[in-house]
Amino acid sequence: MAKSKNVRQIIVLESTANTGFRYSTKKNKREHPNRVEFKKYDPVVRKHVVFKETK
Questions:
Q1: Fewest Cβ atoms closer than 10 Å to its Cβ: which of 13, 27, 38, 55?
Q2: CB distance 11 to 28 below 8 Å
Q3: Residues pairing with 26 in the sheet
Q4: What is the pTM of this model?
Q5: pLDDT tens track of the chain, all 55 residues?
Q6: Which own/partner pairs from 38-43 qualify as long-range (CB within 8 Å, at least 24 positions apart)?
């Protein structure tokens, strides 16, 4: 059986508010080869802040 090459990669998004809160999600490596940023809710600060992809 041949291995399938998975296009989607699991990534970790970390809050820029220095709370240490993280989200895990998936992204398509072909469509977004660079690191991504999303504005999501941080429950520690109780605000929407920018989350950046970590290695």
A1: 55
A2: no
A3: 10
A4: 0.82
A5: 666 678 899 999 999 999 999 999 999 999 999 999 999 999 999 999 999 999 7
A6: 38/13, 40/13, 42/15, 42/17
